[in-house]
Design a protein that fits this description.
This protein has 251 residues and is an alpha/beta fold. It is globular. The protein has helices at 19-28, 45-52, 78-84, 94-99, 104-116, 129-133, 137-148, 176-193, 211-218, 235-246, and strands at 5-9, 35-39, 57-61, 88-91, 120-125, 158-162, 202-206, 225-228. Strand 7, helix 9 and strand 8 (225-228) form a beta-alpha-beta unit. It has one domain (5-246): Aldolase class I (TIM Barrel, Alpha-Beta Barrel). The protein has an 8-stranded parallel β-barrel, surrounded by 7 helices. The structure holds phosphoenolpyruvate. Residues 9, 11, 163, 168-169, 206-209, 227-231 line the site of phosphoenolpyruvate.
Length: 251
């Protein structure tokens, strides 16, 4: 059975004072019925990890470089994230694919670097609104899945997040049927690409998950949790989403 995962992506939000939200979250979930992860900006990773200590709330990065060191001003290597206290890293988020032109091959190389550093890679994929309107959603996410997964991807070191680009930060979400269709296609794609691992790899939904819609989304088959942006910034909101995940039926 796949253990569910609630992952928060703080994006470029958060100063030292905001660590109080991480503390509040950990106090609200001392023995959670799902995995909980917060991915703050790189500047907060080590402080958040130190603040959380032995709490079950894990800490992750939002990107890493594909190589382990070198002349890459401003970049962070996977081993540096691990050294700072991260256990996970988000890769291929649509904002990085759009802002930095990241290709599937680059995401796969970053995921391989993450594996090498002992991190779990949360590999993001999802269609644009134009691609959905053109009926290309399953083809797009299938291509992204195949191109973004490195050799050696396993249920232990890889999580997939389906995040329709048009649902991120917009307050709009796909219907439950649309989420179910994509998650079923991703599970089938994984079965083809990684037959021995497919059943264990967690599939997260991401895109405007809020306390008000979380329970309905978590009832969709093959949804093993969520990648949450805006609603992960405040402990009270993220905690309500986690509570919905803890009581959701098995995916
Ligand atoms: C995200 O950034 O991964 C995300 C899903 O954002 P939001 O929840 O704010 O739509």
């Amino acid at each position: 059975m796949r253990r569910k995962l609630a992952a928060g992506n703080w994006k470029m939000h958060g100063l030292g004072a905001d660590l109080a939200e991480a503390t509040a979250l950990s106090l609200a979930h001392p023995a959670p019925g799902c995995d909980i992860l917060l991915c703050p900006p790189a500047t907060l990773i080590s402080r958040m990890a130190a603040t959380l200590g032995q709490s079950p709330v894990a800490v992750g990065g939002q990107d890493c470089h594909a190589t382990d060191k070198g002349a890459h001003t401003g970049d962070v290597a996977a081993a540096m994230l691990a050294d700072a206290g991260a256990t996970h890293v988000i890769l291929g988020h649509s904002e990085r694919r759009a802002d930095h032109g990241e290709s599937d091959a680059q995401v796969a190389a970053k995921a391989a670097a993450a594996q090498g550093a002992g991190l779990t890679a949360i590999v993001c994929l999802g269609e644009t609104e134009a691609q959905r309107d053109a009926g290309e959603t399953l083809a797009v996410v299938g291509r992204q899945l195949e191109g973004s997964l490195p050799a050696g991807a396993t249920a232990a070191n890889t999580v997939i997040a389906y995040e329709p680009v048009w649902a991120i930060g917009t307050g709009r979400t796909p219907t439950e049927e649309q989420i179910a269709e994509v998650h079923a296609a991703l599970r089938a794609g994984l079965a083809r690409l990684l037959p021995a691992e497919a059943a264990g790899i967690r599939l997260l939904y991401g895109g405007s998950v809020k306390p008000a819609n979380a329970a309905a989304i978590f009832a969709v088959p093959d949804v093993d949790g969520a990648l949450v942006g805006g609603a992960s910034l405040k402990a009270v909101d993220f905690s309500a989403i986690i509570a919905a995940l803890e009581t959701a039926p098995p995916a």
